[in-house]
Specification:
Keywords: Membrane, Transmembrane, Transmembrane helix. One of its GO terms (molecular function) is phosphatidate phosphatase activity. This is Phosphatidic acid phosphatase type 2/haloperoxidase domain-containing protein. It comes from Jimgerdemannia flammicorona. About 50% of the residues lie in helices and about 0% in strands. It is built from nine helices and two strands; from the N terminus they run αααααββαααα. It has a two-stranded antiparallel ribbon with strand order 1-2. A hairpin with a 2-residue loop joins β1 and β2 (about 150). The relative contact order is 0.15.
């Protein structure tokens, strides 16, 4: 008696994050023969999110990111105006007895390094960088170009720079107010009266003299430098 055979269709594998196909698996780098619609029809674990190639720099979702940066900027300015704790000091302390001098690096130069250079790097990179080798990104790049610049990527770079600067401003100003470390020229700013034992110098200079740590120069220079390098 012949054995009965039953035709059974193979069951589809369970869908999970592990078997979801990614753009790098669907399109090989350097290949422009694939149709972009093939990728859109492929189910992915993140199909509920708007495809990246459909995003523009003016998307409403970016409003939240810019609002966060603006709130951080305002919060950092508020914290900056809070006076630090008035710690006791010794008038014979050599660590705070140095003469007051001008800044080694002017504040205007620091802001130039922190603003113009990083944004200039973003613009140059987006202007000279070639279109991505993956056809999946080509349509989005072509649609979002303005004067040869990829507006979406340039916008995201500037947004990241702005949020990084404002977040670092909040962190450094918080530490300045909490620590209240005196600058090396504090006694020269203070102009201590030997009679009243109180500082007689300019009040704003004295307050700034109690905000030595952490350094503003590090905040304004190293954060944009790290962003430009990445």
């Amino acid at each position: 008696m012949a054995a009965s055979t039953s035709s059974q269709q193979p069951s589809a594998p369970a869908f999970s994050l592990l078997n979801a196909r990614r753009p790098s698996e669907t399109f090989e780098r350097g290949s422009f023969d694939n149709n972009i619609d093939d990728y859109r029809e492929e189910p992915t674990a993140f199909s509920f999110i708007a495809p990246y190639e459909n995003l523009n720099w003016w998307e409403k979702s970016y409003i939240v990111d810019w609002l966060v940066g603006i709130v951080l900027l305002a919060l950092g300015s508020i914290i900056q105006n809070i006076p630090p704790p008035e710690r006791d000091f010794d008038a014979k302390d050599l660590d705070i007895s140095h003469p007051k001098r001008g800044s080694s690096v002017p504040g205007s130069l620091l802001w130039f390094l922190a603003t113009v250079i990083p944004i200039g790097v973003f613009v140059l990179y987006n202007f000279f960088d070639t279109i991505g080798k993956c056809i999946y990104t080509r349509e989005r790049i072509e649609r979002n170009k303005l004067f040869g610049l990829r507006t979406h990527d340039l916008h995201n770079a500037c947004l990241g720079w702005f949020v990084s600067i404002t977040l670092t401003k909040v962190i450094t100003n918080t530490f300045k107010v909490a620590v209240g470390r005196m600058r090396p020229d504090f006694l020269d700013r203070c102009k201590l009266s030997l009679i009243t034992q109180y500082c007689t110098g300019d009040e704003s200079a004295i307050i700034d003299g109690r905000k030595s740590f952490p350094s503003d120069g590090i905040r304004r220079f190293h954060v944009p430098r790290s962003l430009s390098r990445d």
